[in-house]
Amino acid sequence: MNSRGSSHRLSSSASSFRNRISFLMLSMLATMSVFYVAGRLWQEAENRVYLIDELDKRTGQGKSAISVDDTLKIISCREQQKKLASFHVELEKARQEGFVPKHLSENSGTQSKKKLLAVIGIVTRFGRKNNRDAIRKAWMSTGAALQKLEEEKGIVIRFVIGRSTNQGDSLDREIDRENGQTKDFIILNDHVETPEEQAKKTKLFFIHAVDHWDAEFYAKVNDDIYLNIDALGAVLSSHLDQPRAYIGCMKSGEVFSQPSHKWYEPDWWKFGDGKSYFRHASGEMFAISQALAQFISINRLFLRTYSHDDVSAGSWFIGLDVKHVDEGKFCCSSWASGAVCAAA
Fold first, then answer.
1. What are the transmembrane regions (predicted)?
2. For labelling alongside 144, which of 46, 154, 262, 287 has CA 20 to 30 A away?
3. Could you report the per-residue pLDDT of 237-261, keeping only the tens digit for each?
């Protein structure tokens, strides 16, 4: 009897011991799993922080400049993110409709908006209403005709102007009143109209235009230039196969160091002993492809301006892989045969 009782107690003790061992091993395995998962999550978090820091540097929030190729990669990434967000919305709608995508349930599907050929900014200033009215009558059109030009030829045209030094004064009110009637202005509310800031104004136009319209080209024109829209469209269409095109009447010229001169350049010393500008398009009118306009927008904090907008634009592209197109038809002052523009 005693022998059987002892044997039973030993068996129970052994079983309890094995249970404790199993429990300890399971606890150790669970703890190790927790540490492993936590370690992986921490590593992924560090990787995300590193990637975000790198992206910040490349998009202008850090200290590094950005190349055209890197810019295009970032733009492509952002476009893919937008598409992904759109797909998520579409998926949610499909779930609510019994897994039937909305575009399949409609009899007539909607097509994506057609890409524009060009956005033209006519750079103007206060006191030039007569010039603007002449342009509206000669080649720009107004109202329904202007809208028809956008829809049928894919060309958007707007006057570009900033604000008065005394913001809200009679000059600003006159522009607001004119725009209320014609609705054909881009008003740069953060830009003050001064002759010294002409180059900055041109840069802000490109930034605004590429952020608001999806177009193949973006063109800057002075408000004393007359255009042949059909001829301009034909010239731009012939360069659609060049993704980084800088099109204009290319020129160079002397850099003037005398403050009294009309074309005085305060940074004249940067252009070397010969004091000659690098090749750039005339400021009367020039056009750039979408990739270059996007480059300006993304790198706005790094791109400096000189006294003249044509030289400034040329300086932004001089070190990039850009196709400089010396287009004789853009030489407005020459009145050449077949020109798309003419100076008033």
1. 21-42
2. 287
3. 999 999 999 999 988 766 665 566 6
CA distance 140 to 152: 14
Q: Is the dihedral of CA 177, 179, 180, 186 positive or negative?
A: negative
Extract the tokens encoding 30. Answer: 């669970």
Q: Kindly report the pTM of this predicted structure.
A: 0.64
Q: Whole-angstrom Cα distance, residue 136 to residue 102?
A: 43
pLDDT at 1 over 60: no
CA atoms within 13 A on the CB side of 330: 27
Give the helix, strand, coil percentages of the chain, each rounded to 5: 55, 20, 25
pLDDT tens by residue, 304-329:
888 788 888 988 998 899 999 999 99
Give the number of other Cβ atoms within 10 Å of residue 166's Cβ.
10
Q: How far apart are CA 130 and CA 279, in angstroms?
A: 33
Residue 315 parent element (H or E) = helix 309-317
- Per-residue model confidence as pLDDT tens digits over 102-141: 333 344 343 447 899 999 999 999 999 999 999 999 999 8
**What distances in angstroms separate CA 209 from CA 155, 292, 296, one per listed residue?**
12, 12, 11
DSSP, collapsed to helix, strand or coil, labels residue 230 as helix
Token pair belonging to 117 = 């050929």
